[in-house]
Amino acid sequence: MHPLPLDGLVVVSCEQAVAAPLATRHLADLGARVIKVERPGSGDFARAYDRTVRGMSSHFVWLNRSKQSVALDLKDPAAVEKMLRLLERADVFVQNFAPGAADRLGLGATALRARFPRLVTCSISGYGGSGPYRDAKAYDLLIQSEAGLVSITGTEDSPAKAGIPAADIGAGMYAFSGILAALYERERTGVGTEVEVSLFDSLVEWMGYPLYYAGYGGSPPGRTGTSHAAIAPYGTFVTGDGTEVVLSIQNEREWVAFCTDVLRTPGLATDPRFDTGSGRVAERAALQVEIDAVLATLSGEIFLDRLAGARIAHARQRELADVLDHPQLDARGRWTEVDSPVGPLRALQPPITLPGRPARMGRVPDVGEHTDEVLAWLDEQP
Question: Catalytic: 168?
Answer without folding.
Answer: yes
